[in-house]
Amino acid sequence: MESVANIGQSFKAEFERQVEAEYSKLSRANVLIAGHTGAGKSKLINAVLGAELARVGSGAPVTDCYTRYSVNSVPVVIFDAKGWEGGTEKELLFFADTERFLAEHRSSDSDSRIHVIWYVVDAPGARFTDFDERLIRVAFRDIPILVVLSKCDIAADEQIQALRDEIAVRQLTEVIDVVEVAAAPLARRAEPRLPPFGLGELVTVTTSRLPELVRKAFISAQRVNFDIKRKTASKEIVAFASGAFAIGFNPLPFADAALLVPLQAAMAARVAVIYGYRKDEMIVVMAASLAGSTFATVCGTTLANLLKLLPGLGTMIGGFINGTVGASLTAAMGFAFSSLFYEIGQRTLAGDETTLTAEWAQEFLHSQFLRIWQILKGKKRLDALVEGEQLMAEPRGSGPA
Questions:
Q1: CATH number at residue 62
Q2: Mind listing the pLDDT tens digit for each residue in 246-281?
Q3: Quick one: 304 and 288 in the same domain?
């Protein structure tokens, strides 16, 4: 069996390799965002993705009215439509350019296929025009569209309801939902009057309509709905725990630790990617080191010595116990990682990043692992691990909803 030190080093090295491998497998989601001048498109993009793509991204004009924005660290591509003002001539030019643009971005075989459209309408303006309808019904046909009512923090209820009624009466089958948001609420004396809202719902609806191939990329990239990240991570953790059960079902106990390290490292890497963290970020480097020196060691030594403590049991029974323990230890590691990344995300959203110290992370990760392991080690069936949502640390809230 590998030594304790080697297990830790192997875990850390494999984790870092797997993080990059996981990102390389993601197919980018392509989001088109359109709206009148001043509708608040840039603030919406920045709020949801946590990166100012329009400022730091590599913007590449693709037509007169459309620009492609992307950065290597964000697995989502934004196609930003140049805002337009009222006027028949300007509207006709924009419409024609849109049709030219989408002629090359509709194909399901293309990497640049538009997967979803956010059509941003200024809620305080309370106007949804015939041109808006024509764009959605004709130019944007056959693409899922979310109408985003922006700046709802400063719009009257009557204005918002009037917009909803106007959109509803036009019976636009292309519109899958209407979402009210405030991406950057109005501030007074540098203090926001309200926290951002509606962003979590926007992410949930968007995710539900994305193809499976790009859904994981969007979940990873978005920075406002951590509940959907947590649920996605939980499903992956249970799947990896099933793999650990299969590995542990082995009559050679001293081989188990070495076999489980790559699987556990791959699981931890996938969880990190779901939460949108990369291997060179401080918190991920620290988590990898902690897990490498603590969790992998615990898993390895526990599995290796389990059967020695149970002499007289048959190979089949011993293998079953070993597999169950391997699965529960792997799940405990995964849920501890998920709890850590979830908590980091919540504190970051709340502007509480000063508390994210190495000492805090070490204590949090260690305590979560031990707490979850105590719960799971008594489970006799692998399907009990599906209860993983209840194994997470108490959430601080889902962030902007």
A1: 3.40.50.300
A2: 665 554 444 455 677 788 889 989 999 999 987 667
A3: yes
